[in-house]
Amino acid sequence: MLEENKKKSLGRGLEALLGEDILNDESAGIKASDKVNIADISIGEWQPRKDFNEEAIKSLAASIKEKGILQPLIVRPKNGKYELIAGERRLRASKEAGLTEVPVIVKDMSDSEVLEIALVENLLRENLSAIEEANAYQTLMDNFSHTQEKVAAMVGKSRSYIANTVRLLSLPAEVQNLVSEGKLSAGHARCLIGLDNAVDLADKIIKEGLNVRQVEALVSHQKEGAADVKSSKARPVKNADILDIEHSLNQNLGLRIKISPNKQGGGKVVLQYASVAELDMIINILEQKKQTNITPQNTVFKAPEAPAEKFSIKFVE
User: Fold this and answer.
1) pLDDT digits over 32-57, tens only?
2) SS3 helix, strand, coil % of the chain, rounded to 5?
3) Burial 165-190 (b: 16+ CB within 10 A, else e)
4) Is 310's pLDDT higher than 80?
5) Whole-angstrom Cα distance, residue 13 to residue 153?
């Protein structure tokens, strides 16, 4: 039922592009069309499918020998002959079956129209690889300024499906090739998007026969480990001098003081209190320093004095 709905949705998209209903179910038989010499039909440069299953072509050729071509090819005139717009599998199978003529519907179309028709027709009629499918969606968006929403409506998919499929094109070429060759599923490949070691993980998936859930867990563990390393690198470690200063201030001022350095060489000094009374004491000490500009005699360092008018207290929870 889902496959039937998909074909109906895609079919409506093609009908809108072609301007007429030429996509009858194969059981409806051939519509009125011309027959042309198969040698006069060339493959257009806009065809998105690059790889063909030879066994499937032979199977279709056997069906054509028995029943004939149940749906015409779509072509356009070019240099006194014809260029294929839609139906490359049928054309290849017809050659395999030994046909000399094939039924066609001739349409006058621009290059851009041919590209759009070829892409949508292939998405409807062929089992494209995930990478071929992603390239088809990307080409529709790049050449026709289609949004993901429009492409989704055209091919009967959700917008998120289109977005996730197109993201496969951000993978390294080696990983994309593994997907095209059927060695790696689209689900596996999506887990590897954005990873620096995507190629190595792809090889590991194939060698160990990992399923998608196992790959998700592996990638999650890797990201958590990387986050921990990044966090530890970003968090400066207190050296002995900072610890000595912190201890001396705690002893001499009678306050709980925490010094937190940052990567830029600065940092912050936090005065901690456990009660309102301790807060009052902290304020009194700071206010006294503001008024007298006297640094306690036993402190281990003397910071440069700021102008009195810039003195402020910031409370940090």
Assistant:
1) 467 889 999 998 766 666 667 788 88
2) 55, 10, 30
3) bbebeebeeebbebbbeeebbbebbb
4) no
5) 8
Least confident among 68-77, 96-105, 193-202, 278-287? 278-287
pLDDT at position 18 is: 53
Axis crossing angle, helix 198-208 with helix 212-234, rounded to the nearest 10: 140
10-13 long-range CB contacts below 8 Å, 24 or more apart? 10/120, 10/123, 10/124, 10/154, 10/155, 10/156, 11/124, 13/120, 13/124, 13/153, 13/154, 13/155, 13/156
Helix or strand holding residue 36 (H, E)? strand 34-37
Q: Find, among 264, 263, 282, 266, the residue nearest to 274 by Cα.
A: 282
Q: Is the pTM of this model over 0.85?
A: no
Give residues with Cβ within 8 angstroms of 105, minimum separation 6: 22, 31, 33, 34, 72, 73, 74, 75
Give the DSSP letter string of 61-120: HHHHHHH--SS-EEEEEETTEEEEEE-HHHHHHHHHTT-SEEEEEE----HHHHHHHHHH
Residue from 214, 241, 260 nearest 301 by CA: 241
- The residue assigned the tokens 């689209």 is 186
Q: Which residues are catalytic?
A: 88
Question: Which two structure tokens, joined as six digits, stand for 49?
Answer: 């499918």
56 near 64, Cβ under 8 Å? no
> What is the phi/psi pair of residue 210, to 5°?
-70, 140
What are the structure tokens assigned to 106, written together? 């001739």
Q: Cα separation of 36 and 76, whole Å?
A: 12
63/94 Cα distance (integer angstroms): 10
Size of the chain, expressed as the number of residues it contains? 317
Q: What percentage of residues in the chain have a pLDDT greater than 90?
A: 29
**Under a CB-based contact definition with an 8 Å cutoff, are residues 157 and 9 in contact?**
no
Give dist(CA 238, CA 255) in Å, integer: 19
Contacts of 283 (CB under 8 A, 6+ apart): 313
> Which residue, chain included where needed, has tokens 């949508």?
120
**Other beta carbons within 10 Å of 12:** 15
